[in-house]
Amino acid sequence: MDCVYVPLMMAEGEGGIQKNGTERNMEHLHKLASILQITAGNERGDVVLPVPLLETLLQSAISNSTVVVILETTVISWTKQIKIALKLDLEKALRAKSTVGPLAELQVWEDRQARLKSILDQLDSRLATQILKELSSMGNVYARSFTVVVSDIKEALCETEENITYLRPLQPYLEQLAAVTKTDKSIRIIAPIIHVLDLIWRHSRYYHEPKNFKRLLRHLSALVVSSAHRFVGEAVFSDTETAFVNLKHALKLCAKFRGCYLDKREKCNEYNKQKVEETLESKKSESGIKIVTGPFITMHLKRYHGMFNLGNQEAEEKDPNMWKNSPWPPRNAPAFGLLNGFMERANDVLDLVQTEQHFKNLENVANIGGVGNRSLDTIVTKIHKRFTSAMTHFMSLTERNVLDTSSTDREFEHEFFKFRSLVRDLEGQMAHVIRICFDRCVNTSAHIRLLEVFAGVSGRESVQRSLSDKLSAILSGMMDEVLNVKTTLDQGMEHPYHLNMPSTASRVCWLRALRVRISKPMEKLRGAIPEILNTDEGWKLRNQYDTVVADIDDQLAKISSSWRREIKPDLTAKLTLNLFEFVEGGPLIRVNLDHTLLLVLKEVHYVTTPEDIPPSLVSLLEQ
Question: What is the pLDDT of residues 108-119, one digit of tens each?
Answer without folding.
Answer: 899 889 888 888
